[in-house]
Amino acid sequence: MKPFNSLAVLLGATALVASGIGIGWQLALQQIPPASPEQMPASPEPVKPAQKVLYWYDPMMPQQHFDKPGKSPFMDMALIPKYAETTHTNGISIDPLRTENIGMRLATVSRLAVARQLEVSGLIGFNDRDVAVVQTRSPGFVERVWPLAAGDLVNAGQPLVELLLPEWASAQQELLAVRELGEPDLLTAARQRLRLLGMPDNLIQHLELSGVVENRYTITAPISGVIQNLDVRNGMSVMNAQTLVRINGLNKVWLEAAVAEAQAETLSIGDLAEVHLTAYPEQGMTGKISTILPMLHENSRSVRVRIELDNQQHKLRPGMSAQIRLSSHGADTGLAVPSEALIRTGKRTLVMLADDAGRYTPQEVHIGHEVGNFTVISAGLEEGQQVVASGQFLLDSEASLSGITAEPAHQQHQHQMEENP
């Protein structure tokens, strides 16, 4: 019976405690007056709306952006969202130690002479204005031909062909007979006849002094150069005005290059040409455009440009190839940046602008032609601004991850016009 009594006592005690607690809460509520509206606790702050997600990306491939969340196609991990609130409108800031580690260099937007330069290839050819053609002025026979052929080099005065000219004999005898008569007019007419038959003045003078008739004549090279044609052989007969030898001079040669039709309009006669020959890579030469041919090559849609080069030492031979840099001689200037500073995306061209506060922002630019290692900027930049010339691709990636977009070049141009009306 003792266990039963103990359980009864425990239950009774529990009931008394519960009733006491209830009575205590009632007394407390009766003593506390109701709170006024001013004493009511403030409502909790409203929950901020969710941040806007610009895109999702893989930290290992941050340049690749995705429109939806999911698993990275590159790594076994989930894509990370990029929120709009983390963007900056005043560029990105890079630790100076990091810029030193990536070898970042700055370049100043400067105004340069923007003479257009073109890189083309060309071939050396003969100067067709330096040609000597040797012909007979009276019929005769070939007594001797020196051992020469087309393509051989000859010097001025070098013997080429010996001819037997029968008509010379009768004309010389006539001059000697007239000389004995002492008639100046007849003597002058006799000399003129010998000249028309092709007898040089020095041989006519020798004839008058010696009185010896000579009907053999050795033809010599009138200029130094290359034999193009040699159409005589021993024993053959020649007619009046027949071409015997054609010689092309080498003291000046032509370098001809094909320039695309769209670029030819920027060239003019007198423009400088910097020439580097494949045969002599260590030696550079300079020349000027002497002729821009008016004909357009239909297949290549190109215009031929002719450059005249001095060749007194005959080192330049027709057929040699050369690389040519053509530069217009205009005095126009324009803004330019190093070509290595440009970021070409395929659709547009960007540069990374650097300000005095050490921040970098992408800027779209409109580019023109190249001048050496520089590129002309037609819109998007101002003179004196600083652009990143090395390491700009890393900065562009950082700006892309931060959601910083490049300002269009036309807007920058409009700002420049407003600041400098």
Automatic annotation (TrEMBL):
All copies of domain CusB-like barrel-sandwich hybrid, residue ranges: 131-248
GO molecular function, one term: transmembrane transporter activity
Domain Heavy metal binding residues, every copy: 55-82
Keywords: Transport
Coiled coil: none
Residues covered by the CusB-like beta-barrel domain: 252-329
Family to which this protein belongs: Belongs to the membrane fusion protein (MFP) (TC 8.A.1) family.
Chain ranges of the CusB-like three alpha-helical bundle domain: 167-214
GO cellular component terms, semicolon-separated: membrane; outer membrane-bounded periplasmic space
Pfam families (alphabetical): 3HB_CusB (PF25869), Beta-barrel_RND_2 (PF25954), BSH_CusB (PF25919), CzcB_C (PF25975), HMBD (PF19335)
Highest taxon, organism lineage: Bacteria
SUPFAM superfamilies referenced in this protein's UniProt entry, alphabetically: HlyD-like secretion proteins
UniProt name for this protein: Efflux RND transporter periplasmic adaptor subunit
GO terms classed as biological process: copper ion export; plasma membrane copper ion transport
Domain CzcB-like C-terminal circularly permuted SH3-like: 335-395
